[in-house]
Fold this protein.
Amino acid sequence: MANGKSFFLLKERAAVNGNVFDELKARGFIAQVSNEDAVRKMLGERRVTFYIGYDCTAASLHAGSLVPIMAMAHLRRAGHRALAVIGGGTTMVGDPSGRTEMRPLLAEETIRGFGVSIQAQLDRYLNFDGQGAIAVNNADWLLPLNYVAFLRDVGRHFSVNRMLSAEAYRMRLEKGLSFIEFNYQLLQAYDFLHLFRTRRCTLQMGGDDQWGNILAGVDLIRRVAGAEAEAMTFPLLTAAGGAKMGKTAQGAVWLDAALCSPYDFYQYWVDCDDRDIGRFLRVYTFVPLDEIARLEKLRDQEINTAKRVLAYEATRLAHGEAAAAEARAASGAAFGVAGGKDIQSLPTTSVPRDRLEAGIAPAELFTDVGLTPSRGEAKRLIKQGGLYVNDERIDTHERLLTMEDVRPHGMLLKAGKKKIHRVIAK
């Protein structure tokens, strides 16, 4: 990104009034806390070192990962020290939480590459400066472990009966839980113990599906070190319509611009359900709560103003101000919002001129550029009147898209009212 860190410029670091725990609670971040009074006190009285782990199961995190990332950023902005644990070691085992079957085992080299990409994405939100925010990889301490010594020193503190009662393991017992996955909770608990010993980390946070694993670490620190540590989890959010956060019909909304363009990322938030506006602004942006209260009261067409604020702020954090401004301008140009002129910032695909001169079936082209997941779906949308070229409805499958449809700015394809793609001839 050309303009440096997306949000953590020193000039933009906002003063946090009061206790950051109260801020998180008011914004809807908190699901469960090991000891609410203790956590609130520690966050209000001293600088706390806390951590969240991110396993390296893909080349990118996605919008569904943003709840813990934003929570880390809030604590970081309040002056606490963030440890982002890249799970190079735990990914080699695989977390059974929320899974109905075993995760595919990835090669160590693949995991390492994914970890590098994920760390770069987290850096945009946290600014890894070696002091207020630090990235570490648990492969550094997990892979060298002596297994027998680990079982004697750590494994003896775990009750198999208690582990099997945890939701992550219980839901897998019917289909089968592999022995390698059964070790995951021990490794995550050991992460917390290791960070307590080496970094004085006393708070672990994560998604609510991690509650059992996190409490195992709290208990391990108490048993081995005779010390107190705390746990906090965040709700697993879904959109008002029931869809998982960060998921669309076309796939995941990735944080990596190479996998999901800033424009498509922006549009994901613009397209959200009206019922989600206030909740999403509180969780996915740093917009002040009083301003959010004003925005979520908007109704009818005015609600689009709040959606554009949400989309711009979320995109600014993920991709930087320049990319967010381009996405906003391109969206305005495509959908008629005053001031939107940069149509060249739309997602664009180059198509060979000779292919366009021969003519391309709409179902083929819309699928090729990713506006529809399949040609069958594209044909269904044509029947429903949902596909457009240059704002002209495509009424028949026989209508070919040719060079005659290419305007000076290109050919604009729309699926429904909100999904748009530009095609240019080469």
